[in-house]
Amino acid sequence: MAPKESEPRTELDTRYGEPQATATSWQEAVALLTSAELFWLTTVRPEGRPHVTPLLAVWSDGALYFCTGPEERKSRNLARNAEVILTTGTNTLAGGCDLVVEGTAVRVTDEARLTALARAWEAKYGAEWHFDVRDGGFAGDRGNVAEVHEVAPRTAFGFGKAPYSQTRWRF
User: What is the pLDDT of residue 1?
Assistant: First the structure.
């Protein structure tokens, strides 16, 4: 079952912004999460070291979704510790907003949900990212099956630039 959209508690942290800064709205953050093409996923290796890797993600029904092969480092990390951070942003010093989403990665195996997510992936990223659903995941064109994970935000941060601001959303 997909999470429901909810309005988080929004807090502007004035210690880290300019005097004229205002909090970024959650609606603006969702629009940025929806349109962002590239995300960075942070997981924790078994011995405690962080692991960061770029990937594609889709925002749907109040959560971010990403996929990974079961033998990839990030998947092996998730098997031991499902706490993750997904980040995205503008990669510029002035202008835009960088976003950080903290939560727990939960594997999605429901065929109807996976089918809807596969359509969302293709709609966002194009026909090159078409997936069929098989064996509880996304089936690739080489017979591989990627696991799909859902991350409902527990806490999220927005770092505005021009003016500089820091917004926290608590769910």
Answer: 42
